[in-house]
Each structure stands twice: as structure tokens, then as C-alpha cells.
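Quick one, C-alpha cells below. Sequence please?
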């Protein structure tokens, strides 16, 4: 979905009040009555409200529903985008929006910048996109979902991803730095790296394989399973330095390039206490094994790892358990269950509409972004969000 921010600078204070009123009304109404919009916005005079509604509808931020039983409007994903960006603008976390650098099944990735021009990444969750595309093949429980519930699920996905990314970052895991979260979006640091799926060869596949397997084991050691650990969600960052090893001295102290894996995309992450934890853990391991065999012709001689042996001795009382810590930070079990049910539904849709078993596939397009696009493409023609 295109993120066109050109109209943001021309929206006035009343426009934002009306747009916020539609968002608030959407909590209890799929179509928010015009009278309720006026009441929540607090604007005096019906003409002022209708003028704002006209401006917002013209820019695709709200939409009138055909054949509705009463006069009203619904919030669009475009309107939700603007509300999130306006929050970042007020916090001074995002000043301008640049090019789109990635697209997943249910998210869009953009380069943004703060007031000092420091580039960041904006991830916009758009849950429901798969189901809308395949609505004829979807089950009734997907077909009957409202756009409001998709937006709610997108918010949950963003909340969960931000919470886990922050917990992982604080505990030394190689993940982007989470910088902000608003509604269905996340702002994170921009890493100059490429998805593993774009890399055709590496000098030492065994070392990279061992590092990735060790990361899966380390995650389980703190109570977590990624659930989608594959070449789409692993970025490879190149770090250059001079070698001080014997191998480096034999080559005249040649420059050494270290490949550093960075893990992204966390909405599907689960606890080791999950009922299907063993299946998710093994799927992550198998994804890495199959990719290295297919891409680098590398097969490890060592069996496993296996979840049962990996988590032996891990305390169940919460000590160093990030799954427990994230729940304690505010992302409740209720939210986690709702999001899990949705993700399970979309996996069922994939299985029905695509060839192969999507539940066990490592080749499904994910929500990762190419973080290593060249600088000019990443900057692009950015659009400032400030009003003129």
C-alpha cells in the first residue's frame, strides 16, 4: 500500500480533531455516525465538521460506506497511517518519509528520517491484506472480519513486535534498535545489511550456520522461539576490520569481512511454554538447515538441536525469561492469544490458496525488508511532514 504523506502538511487542527474522533468512534462502531464524530471532536457548528469530513474523505483518510443504515464514515488504513505519523511528528521521532524499501505479506517498510536527517525504518503492519486478496477462497471467519478488526490486529502485531524487539535488544541479541511505536507502526534503526535470501555465497557457510543455530538455542534459553526464523527474516551485516589471526598474517594482514546476522520480524514469536513450542522450534531449525543445503550446499554433521534438551534447567519462575518479562511489561496473554488466533487463520488461508504446506515452509514471503539498499535509493525523494 502506498504511503502518500503529501496531504499531511495541509491538514489543520480541526481536521486532526475530526480524524481522531473517527478513530475513537471506531472502537465501538465499524461505521462511525456523523453525529458521533461531531460530538467526539467537540467542534462547534455542523458546517465545520462537514468541511473537515470532506477534506479527510477527499484524501482517502476516511471513507463513506455504501448502503449503510445511517450516515457515517469508517477509518481507512490511510487515516490510521496519518494518525501514527502525526504522533511521531509530535514526538520529533519522524520528520520526513522517503522511499518504500520492503514489502511483506502483511507489512510495508519505509525509510524515514528525524529532524537531523538520521535515517530510520518505519514498519507499517497491514494485517488482513492476504485475506482481502484471497477472499473468495477464505473461510467464513476470515471473510466476515471487518476492516476495524484488521486494524486492531495490526496494532497488536506492532505492540508485540516492539515489546519483543526492546526486550531482545536490552539483552544483547542482534536486532534493530526499537525507537518508537504508534498504533500499527514501529520506528527502528536502519541497518546497512541485506536479507540472507539475497546472498548467493559466503566464505565460511559452516561458521554462519553455527551462529544462526546458536541464536535459535540462545532464544530458547531465555524462553522464546522466533517462529519464522528463515532467510527472509535474517539480515546479514558486513563489518570490516584488519585480521590479527595467523590466517590474516599469511595474507599480509588483509582486510577481513565479518558477517553479522541480524534478526528481524517478531509478531509470531512464542514462549517455550506454548502448546506447539516443539513444532515451532523444530521448524526454525529445519528452515536454516534446508536453506544452507539448498543455497550453499552445506549439510551439518551434527543432529538437532532439539527443544527438549535445549531448555533443560531453564527456570520456570521467570528468572531471565524474556517471555515472562514481556508479559509483565504490558503485552497481555489476552492480546497474545488474539494475535495468535489471527496468525493461525492466515496460515490456514496460505495452505488453502498456495501450493505446498505453508505451515512448514521456509520459502513464504515474509515481512522483512531489504536494509541494505544503496543510499540514494533509501533517501529517495522524501516528503516532510511539517505543516507549511
Amino acid at each position: 500500500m502506498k504511503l502518500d504523506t503529501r496531504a499531511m502538511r495541509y491538514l489543520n487542527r480541526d481536521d486532526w480533531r475530526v480524524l481522531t474522533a473517527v478513530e475513537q468512534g471506531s472502537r465501538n462502531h465499524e461505521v462511525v455516525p456523523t453525529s458521533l464524530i461531531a460530538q467526539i471532536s467537540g467542534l462547534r457548528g455542523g458546517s465545520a465538521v462537514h468541511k473537515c469530513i470532506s477534506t479527510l474523505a477527499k484524501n482517502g483518510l476516511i471513507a463513506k460506506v455504501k448502503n449503510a443504515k445511517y450516515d457515517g464514515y469508517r477509518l481507512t488504513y490511510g487515516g490510521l497511517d496519518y494518525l501514527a505519523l502525526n504522533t511521531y511528528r509530535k514526538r520529533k521521532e519522524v520528520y520526513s518519509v522517503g522511499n518504500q524499501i520492503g514489502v511483506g505479506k502483511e507489512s510495508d517498510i519505509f525509510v524515514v528520517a528525524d529532524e537531523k536527517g538520521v535515517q530510520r525504518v518505519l514498519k507499517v503492519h497491514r494485517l488482513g491484506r492476504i485475506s482481502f486478496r484471497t477472499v473468495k477462497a477464505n473461510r467464513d471467519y476470515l471473510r466476515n472480519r471487518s476492516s476495524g478488526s484488521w486494524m486492531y490486529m495490526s496494532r497488536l502485531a506492532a505492540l508485540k513486535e516492539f515489546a519483543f524487539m526492546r526486550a531482545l535488544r536490552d539483552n544483547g541479541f542482534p536486532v534493530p534498535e526499537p525507537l518508537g511505536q504508534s498504533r500499527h507502526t514501529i520506528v527502528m534503526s536502519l541497518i546497512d545489511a541485506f536479507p540472507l535470501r539475497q546472498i548467493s555465497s559466503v566464505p565460511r557457510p559452516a561458521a554462519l550456520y553455527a551462529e544462526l543455530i546458536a541464536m535459535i538455542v540462545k532464544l530458547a534459553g531465555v524462553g522464546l522461539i522466533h517462529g519464522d526464523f528463515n532467510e527472509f527474516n535474517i539480515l546479514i551485516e558486513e563489518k570490516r576490520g584488519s585480521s590479527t589471526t595467523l590466517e590474516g598474517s599469511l595474507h599480509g594482514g588483509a582486510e577481513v569481512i565479518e558477517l553479522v546476522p541480524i534478526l528481524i520480524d517478531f509478531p509470531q514469536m512464542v514462549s517455550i511454554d506454548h502448546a506447539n513450542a516443539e513444532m515451532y522450534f523444530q521448524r526454525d531449525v529445519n528452515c536454516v538447515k534446508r536453506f544452507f543445503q539448498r543455497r550453499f550446499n552445506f549439510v551439518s554433521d551434527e543432529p538437532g538441536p532439539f527443544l527438549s534438551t535445549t531448555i533443560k534447567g531453564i527456570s520456570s519462575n521467570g528468572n531471565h525469561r524474556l517471555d515472562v518479562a514481556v508479559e509483565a511489561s504490558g503485552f497481555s496473554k489476552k492480546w497474545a492469544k488474539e494475535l495468535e488466533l489471527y496468525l493461525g487463520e492466515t496460515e490456514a488461508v496460505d495452505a488453502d490458496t498456495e501450493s505446498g504446506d505453508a505451515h512448514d515452509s521456509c520459502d513464504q514471503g515474509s515481512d522483512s525488508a531489504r536494509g541494505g539498499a544503496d543510499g540514494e535509493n533509501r533517501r529517495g525523494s522524501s516528503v516532510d511532514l511539517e505543516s507549511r
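Residues 132-145, 245-251, 355-360, 368-379 have pLDDT under 50 and may be disordered. The longest helix spans residues 147-170.
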